Amino acid sequence: MSFLVWRQYRAQAVIGLALLAAFTALLLVTGISMASQWHSALATCAAAGTCGNLSNTLFLGSHGVGFFVIMTLGVPVVLGVLCGAPLLAHEFETKTSEFAWTQGVTRRRWLAVKAGWLLLAAAALGGIVSALVTWWSGPDNALQGDAFGPGRFDIMGIVPVAYTLFAMALGITLGVLIRRTIPAIGLTLAVYLAVRLLIDQVVRPHYMTAVTHVYGLTANWVPSGAVWQLGAGVVNPSGQLLPMQDGTVIGPNVSTSTIPPVCSSGMAQAENHTGAVLSCMQKLGYRQFVTYQPANRYWEFQGIETVVFVALAAALLGLTYLAVTRRDA
Amino acid sequence: MSFLVWRQYRLAAAVAALVLAVFAAVLLVTGLSMAAQWHSLLTGCTANGTCGDLAATVSLGGSVAGHDLVILSLAAPAVFGMLVGAPLLAYEFEAGTNGFAWAQSVTRTRWLLVKVGWALLAAAVWGGVIAALVTWWSGPRNALLQNWFQVNTFDTQGLVPVGYAVFATALGITAGALLRRTLPAVAIVLGGFIGLRLWISQDVRSHYMSPVTTTFSAAGNFNTPPGSLAVGSGMTGPNGQVLAQNYAGRVFNGVPFSSLPSACQSLASQASRGAQGAADRCLAAAGYHNYVTYQPASRYWAFQGIETGIYLAVALALLAVTYVVVTRRDA
Questions:
Q1: Among A178, A217, B210, B270, which has the minimal tally of Cβ within 10 Å of its Cβ?
Q2: From CA B201, how far away is CA A40, in angstroms rounded?
Q3: What is the pTM assigned to this prediction?
């Protein structure tokens, strides 16, 4: 069976390896020059004592390569669509599954070997791409401090491997259930995007209870390290969040319509009196806050997200096993 | 033939209509609330006379769901090309159903014209409906941020999504006719669409018309008009020659120190803001100028038209290849 899988997929393997080699060469060449640029910039700014505003003055990398790096977001779903969805659907469509099953190969072995090798290959590809992107982005992550944010979190570390396994399992399962390649491709695309967006925007912020720091209206406080900021705002003396309604705002996004009259009296134009208004509100008990996930939780979040997607993949593969072994040919 | 195409694609048409309906519903609901917010903002700032700095003080995010869909609409043309364009002929060749159709007194030319014609029309409608919704939804944001020319804004609004959708579908049809296999054709649509789109939006688009150049004193300041597409900027020497830019080594405004007059070099090497101003004045006195090149906002529709024309022309060339391949090749 393993040899059959190799015969079926050798062209895809060659194309995949060629693309991977080109991507590796691109990232190695630009990554090494970016790292040396970063080290010389660090040495220069340390000597001049200007490392504080380095992120405003230094641009690392190139837009072109940066585009390729961001596009690795799509690697898992492309694998799921082009390898996962047709894996069994195309066999059912052309009835080659029946031919295989009559050659002394049990359905279970056929499924295990085909799905096993392709999942392994996809996970390896996802892992290599993610390792390259993680290494390449090292200097830029240190410069921008945003590795925890959506978009960057999703293309580095171990989560891309889990996304790849999930996308492959999703494609395989939908292919088995629908038994037609093109509809399976379309549905894989839609379900993958929906699940990723849902977890990204709704579920992930709540993996662990976020930290909230409350501080004075006139103070300036920034959480240290590459944190993931979830929210910020101003609370009134009784602890209620001031509405972030639009309109003219002063200071830390305080809408002029929410300023208590005692602080706004005699104020002609808010922006001329920002300091006075803010310290007046500070005396009344108004405070601002930042809600965030601290930087040291990065790997815990990577681990939790990986477990979530691997568990989803395992459940889908269980469904595939039932559908293939129980269903009539 | 048209009835056959309808029979083959009625399920796909129903699914596409459903997807469009959900898309429209989300954008209508979130777009109406954003438009209401925008109008109340405008009324408020007109009363206070603070409309000038509106962009700095307010944000019009729209809802997360609406924003996600607008970004995802970037991929809508490629999805149509992959799911409808690539299998259109390839799947018939794979299953051998083209041979059956050709044996029913339908000529290859008619078979091809009717199938391809309806598919391209559907692609144009798909791209056009999505673009119309996104353009309407983004109206307040565009007016606030003046970002019509921005990458991803230009690409999801106006006419160009129709060109993209027709191109992606034609690419899928041609790849399918040449390879006669569905999956490789799907992969080619994905790679070809992303490749051409990236290349044109990054390297070609800003050169559709020769940009406007504004030159000003090295000590002066000039902001490009709102809504324009920045093409480049730099410095010219005392004779008006453009100084080559280099981002390695010691540079001032992107120009290597060796290109600057020696009198100004020591000022330029000092990092403080005061010395930066002094270096600017020194260069201005020596006859150096800054320049910016840009495409003004008034060219937006010209650029939309040119870009749409490019994609339609590429699609036409691809379809000509398909016609030759299908009519000349053995069945």
A1: B210
A2: 32
A3: 0.86
